[in-house]
Amino acid sequence: MKAFHFLAFDIGATSGRAVLGSLQEGSFTMREIHRFPTPMVALHGHYYWDVFNLYSALLEGLSKCAAEHIPLCSIGIDTWGVDFGYLANDGTLLGMPRAYRDPYTEGAPEDFFKHLPKREVYARTGIQVLPFNSLFQLFRTYEDMYVPQEIAERILFIPDLLTYMLTEQQVCEYTIASTSQLLNPYTHKFDYDLLEQVGVSPSQFCSIIMPGTTVGPLCETVCQQTGIEPVPVIAVAGHDTASAVAAVPARSPHFAYLSSGTWSLMGIETEQPIITDESFAHNFTNEGGIEGTTRFLKNITGMWLLERCRATWKKQGKTYSYADLTRMATESTFEGLINPDDPAFANPEEMMAAIATYCDAKGEAAPQSDADYVRCIFRSLAHRYGEVLAMLKAMSPFPIECLHVIGGGSQNELLNQWTADAIGIPVIAGPSEATAIGNCFIQAKAAGLVGDRWEMRRLIAETFTPNIYYPCK
Length: 473
What we know:
Blueprint (H helix, E strand, L loop, with lengths): L3 E8 L3 E10 L2 E11 L2 E4 L2 E4 L1 H17 L4 E7 L5 E4 L20 H5 L5 H8 L8 H10 L3 H5 L2 E4 H10 L4 E2 H4 L5 E2 L4 E2 L1 H6 L10 E2 L3 E5 L2 H7 L5 E4 L4 H7 L8 E6 L2 E8 L6 H5 L3 E4 L5 E8 L2 H12 L6 H10 L19 H11 L8 H26 L6 E5 L6 H11 L3 E3 L4 H13 L6 H11 L3 E3 L4
Parallel strand pairs: 1-6, 6-14, 9-12, 15-19, 19-20
Antiparallel strand pairs: 1-2, 2-3, 4-5, 7-8, 10-11, 13-14, 15-16, 16-18, 17-18, 20-21
Helix pairs in contact: 10-17, 13-15, 15-16
């Protein structure tokens, strides 16, 4: 029986991968083809994404598929949200895209709300206010008379920009655009009044297309460079969390999810946005999902805290495996907590120093050892998950019966158990590769090989056996 092969480029804010997903007689398998870093570039006090290096990594992944003579059905790209690049009228990329951790948007929301009230912006978009949202990035560059923005013919979000580099076709995929705080969540179209406030013309954005739309084949130069055939590129759920949620192996709609990686994103899947005084007060967001659904969620700082600590330890010559980290968290007796979402932890020069300073400012004891820092981070994340799930329960239109944890963090057994204890309902962990899996299955859906999202989820549940954690208290 014929196997159908799909290539998912799953690109996160710290690393990216080319993953091959294969579907044959209802059986799904996957393997990593290529892995590459996605570092930010620091230049003159600003942070950028080296999109040209990312493009080279995509070519390397395609070259490896060509070398193995893999007959690809299609290709899909997902990335983090909010960031974008500018194109000139001849298609030239106008510099490297600014990175969302660039401090240039500090204070931008407060400045913007002098023009439009915060409550009105939320009513128009349903999006959680975060300083790095596209709305505030564009507002700040408009104020600064940033030349690429002034002369750009097109503005493309990162997955759409990479798709353009592979196909020469310009599109704007719905789920990635929905992270911008520029989109009306009911009409799925850009809000022209908001665009005007940031000096952007509606013509600078392409018309919205939905996940599963075929963009076009790989362009001739890409095929020549890699030896690959002109395979079609599918606009999957371009926002990595949207692709991950598509792969939640749920049997019932009465679930919450936690996409656990650099960021932790906790939410529910709904048919309509939830834009209320309560959701505004708690700063929840309404982002796009597959099949026109809404991902009603909250962004929580996740493993970024631990990743930055590990970077410091690596410089000190200390490399800890995840097994080591779990053991350390168990052996430590540190009981202090931090708020993972405090602005102090957004992009400090040194994360452990930021945590110690935070504890000192609160009049609490700071961690004293590496093990203390690990335990502090894990316990603080579990505690924050409990707080956010309680808010979700109060706003959800249905009872939440379990929490599906997906992404790399789903492999952290200790954190999963502490999370179950904090939220009081079962935690169902896995698959850890949810984003790449969702990317592949959206391609398979576009090819007519699977039906709606519930058929996708049934096949995923049958392929990847989850681990279940029950509350102990």
